[in-house]
Amino acid sequence: MDPHSVRRCKTPLASAFLGTVLRVTVVLAAIQPVQAKGRSLLQTASDKLTTPAGNTELPSPVLDLATAAAETWKSDQTILWSITGNYEPYEYTTTRSDIDGKNVSLPAGKPSGFAVDLAAAACAVCSLKCDFVLADTQDCWTSGGFPGNGLSAGHFDGCLAFMDTARRRLGVSFSDAIAKPRPAGILSRLDPETGVPLVSPDSDLSDKIVAVVGGWATNGRSLGDAVNTCTNITFNASPIDGYIVLTANDPFGGPDAAMRKLLDGDADVLFTYETIVDDRRGCTHVGCDASLYSGIGTEYAWIHTGLTGYQLNGTTLAMTKKGSPLVETINPCLRHVMRSAFYTQLCQEYRSRGFDDITELCFGGDDTNDEDVPVSEYELSDEFDDESSAPGPSPSASTEVWSGCAEGKCACEA
Questions:
Q1: Enclosing H/E stretch for 178
Q2: pLDDT grade, residue 26 (50/70/90)?
Q3: Which pairs with CB-CB distance under 8 Å and at least 24 residues apart come from 399-404?
Q4: What's the pTM value of the predicted model, to 2 decimals?
């Protein structure tokens, strides 16, 4: 079966337009807290504790972890996790056409995603009351590079699945990472007659217009920290003759608006995560235009991939305002989950849903295909640390052999 045929598309439950702040957080109606021995748990009709979409059973509570978490959180208030509903594979909302890795239909209108399921598992292990709320990306982090109003004002406790960068650490705190750094890349349109990229891979992007997605970590500042994989020099971020950043703010918090800037010729290149084309190809939900992602190798191609130098850690479970006890509370719970078979099974689950890249991003790499091997056996303790060292600069030179732009990636001499 074509992996894209099983990929769900996540319909946001509400349109979050630019500049709109959710002044009153609305808990997704599909998730109702159930009081049981002082805790609120995600529950299905069978009374089993499951992930929000109801397709995966959650791990059982651990007494000592639950006791420690209660002492740290010091509140009986529900932990509210913010999601956009449009950031696959980490967080999205299900539609009627969604199926899981076992080809079983999922209920529509529920939070789903790799990070959503891990948050639910971490809360279950520590008997914490947790729910998910819908908010715009920029309620968490703005396009201007500052903490969002929703997070700062406490409309929710943590933003789910945000990348840890040096700039963001100046304004917020991060939990441990749940996946390795998500590589970024640069897309260029192709000449329709010759198939040659309109921006050469050896360009330093001087005077080029670079489209970026509003609120994402792949912004103009991050590009300035990246290294051209063909020339081993940084891109020209000079305010005089360097690249010009064009921030595209999408009403659904996704990358569609930025892709349109590239395809319409408003931008010369697009700087974004290198998996977005594969992750969004074939989607049908509101907020994702599948036609934008069908032109790889014909209309556009990657002139650079594997850019990670701007990240200090991978995709994290929680981004929260400084001073919040959430990080200290959730990290021990998360570490327990990630050192269990639940984590490796979850990696396998999302790969089977069509997100092939999740296998490479999961801690443990390709070995996460083995559902019986817990992450603890991979000796990844350093990678769980929210103060872990950077993954290193972007590659000094392209070592991957590409067969040409027709394959979706352009060789350095293109």
A1: strand 177-179
A2: very low
A3: 400/305, 400/306, 404/195
A4: 0.76
User: By three-state DSSP, how is residue 121 classified?
Assistant: helix
Place of tokens 């529950």: 43
Tokens 């100046």: give the residue: 170
The C-alpha atoms of residue 167 and residue 110 are separated, in whole angstroms, by 32
Other Cβ atoms closer than 10 A to 150:
22
Compute φ and ψ for 117, nearest 5 degrees.
Answer: -65, -35
Report the largest interatomic distance among the alpha carbons of the chain, rounded to a whole angstrom: 68
Q: Cβ of 377: how many Cβ atoms within 10 Å?
A: 12
Percent of all residues in the chain with a pLDDT value above 90, rounded to a whole number: 55
d(Cα 173, Cα 63) in Å, to the nearest integer?
27
Tokens 């690249």 -> residue: 243
Count of CB atoms situated within 10 Å of the CB of 309: 19
Domain coordinates of the chain in residue numbers?
A: 1-414
Q: Which two tokens stand for residue 187?
A: 């897309």
Query: What is the enclosing helix (H) or strand (E) of 321?
Result: strand 318-321
Alpha helices of 170-225 — where are they, by DSSP H? Answer: 220-224
Helix spans in 251-320 (H): 256-263, 276-280
8 Å CB contact between 331 and 162: no
- Using DSSP, state whether 368 is helix, strand or coil: helix
